[in-house]
Amino acid sequence: MADPHIQCELDGLDKLTVLLYRCALTFSAIIMSIVAWEPTFAIPALVIAALIASSTVHIYDKRFRWLIQGSGLFAAVWLISGLWQPLALGAALFAFSALAIKEYFCFQLKILMLTPVALAGFWFCLVFGQEHISIAFSMSGSILLAVTAFSKWRMPLHYDIGDKMRYQV
């Protein structure tokens, strides 16, 4: 997570990664609103969005960055393997949950702490065949991800980067 008080020079790659991250969050909110009805399209779309968001997030601490990136990468690899799609979806939802927690520390919006509950609730209901309940969880997850995305779009781009010297490799 970056420091909004530090404004460093952004190059083209910095701007691209910030825009990709914000677009992936926005796209995930939209896709979460239809995943209960169109899982064939929505699950791969969420995995792709998770891979993009997790690979373009700017977090100083490498342990958390690698955890989030690892879950996005695992989701993509598992989806490609074609074994059990719900596991790929679960990894993607874990990535979005972790990103929502990260953004909670950025915005101090307590409601974002409910994102992991909504996304995990959706996943469990989907896996255990509770379609009607999964719709409620997917819609609440969609709203929470939309709040996160809306909050990100209101910020200048340099807020996402912060002090480039503080990033751990």
Structure description:
It comes from Photobacterium profundum 3TCK. This is Arabinose efflux permease. InterPro entries: DUF2301. The chain crosses the membrane at residues 19-37, 43-60, 72-101, 107-128, 135-153. The longest helix is centred in the middle third of the chain and has 23 residues, at 85-107. The chain is mostly helical. The mean pLDDT is 88. The chain has one domain (12-166). The chain starts with 11 loop residues before the first helix and ends in an 8-residue tail after the last helix. It has 7 helices and no strands.
Shape: globular
Largest sheet: none
Content of β-strand: under 5%
Percentage of residues in helical conformation: over 70%
Q: Quickly count the domains.
A: 1
Round the Cα radius of gyration to an integer and report it: 16 Å
Pick out its properties.
72% helix, 169 residues, single chain, transmembrane helix, mainly alpha, membrane
Write the layout of secondary structure elements.
Elements: H1 12-32, H2 39-56, H3 62-81, H4 85-107, H5 115-127, H6 131-153, H7 158-161
Helix pairs in contact: 1-2, 1-6, 2-3, 2-4, 3-4, 4-5, 4-6, 5-6
Brief write-up:
With 169 residues, this protein is mainly alpha-helical. The chain has helices at 12-32, 39-56, 62-81, 85-107, 115-127, 131-153, 158-161.
